[in-house]
Specification:
Elements: H1 7-19, H2 26-34, H3 37-64, H4 71-79, H5 81-98, H6 103-119, H7 138-154, H8 157-185, H9 200-218, H10 222-232, H11 234-245
Length: 246
Amino acid sequence: MRRDIGALLGVALIVNATIGTGIFKTPAKVARLAGSTGASLAVWVAGSVIALCGALTLAELAASLPRMGGIYEYLRRAWGDRVAFVFGWAKLTLLIPSAVGSFAKLGAEAATSLLGLATDGLFVRWLGALSPRTAGPSRAVVVAALLGAGYVLARSFEQLTEAFVVGYFPFYVLAVLAVFRLRAKEPGLARPFSVPLYPLPPLVFLAGAGVLLWGASRDVDHNAAIAFAVVLAGVPVGWIWRRLRG
């Protein structure tokens, strides 16, 4: 793919991916659960700090591994093809459709993981074809859009959000842990950007992620269980795919 994203579009994509569409519905729920305006603001501040720590950590990986795929590439490099495949599977079947409300993210960020899977031969190479007109992953975008449309018709906003948290956050945790692993595994890897105050930011993010996942586990319903089962299905699917490829 051509690298045609400039600074302005890059900032817009990051803001879109960080805020998404949840900002239109989440604040009211947070305020209701927090019980007061002060507590609600404290939750948002804490969430912002945790998100910043995660962003600083992933920035080191992005600078060190400037290859198409984003988190998929970080997981593949740190934890191997099997973990990367499960992430790609989860993104194809669950995460991209759950985030379909954010179309810019759908087209620009989500399809890169599918493209990375196909390019590396970990999934159907047909998905990795680039459009001769736009040089973009048109097939991956179309598949993601069709799956997303089906999810929107079948699930509510809250169910989609829950599926996204249950399905995606464990991979965020693995991506942040990849910083520790790659620093030990590949100490000579060029790092144009290093996490400031390392290891504090990744530890803060991991602590926040642990609290979030703990809270989610206390309120597991059948929708969350289905989302988790879909992610785990990537393990046998990956095994079958490797056997078929010989």
